[in-house]
Amino acid sequence: QGQEKLSCNPKKENGTHVVLCELGNPMKAGAQITVDMELSVSGLEDMGDAITFQLQLRSKNSPSSTNASVTVTVPVEAQAEMELRGNSLPDTTVLPTSWQGVEGSRRLEDHGIKVEHVYELHNKGPSTVSGVSLRLAVPHQLGGHVLLYLLELGTEGGMNCTHHPDLNPAQV
To answer: What are the structural domain ranges in the chain?
Structure first.
């Protein structure tokens, strides 16, 4: 009839995480109780499509091996919104109509104007993400001529990077 908050205590029992909630004592024979539970579970990124809970009602007064048990499977849906931000340094570059690179030179300025592109991938949540892959296509040639000379590629924040096959071919 009335609503009350239950006192629940987490503990480990035989290597399993258990949450014990005291429903009340004593209860009258034939009593019916409805319980709404809200559980907060972290680390579900690698749990698959569902998580399973086993619910069991136990009586302290009459221990029995026939205590009813119910299995509840709840679908897991992780949601995360990703945002890609990027900029160039300098933000505007005017390329000459004809460029004559110095053949065999190892000086950067003999291969063109330096332009640095920086991209940041942000997780706007609400869930965490893992196994994210970002594929970035960079036009490095135009009409058989070098448009951008790809010098180096780097990452920060524990990310892995696969290098482009045309990265720094002259070893500048």
So the answer is: 7-75, 78-171
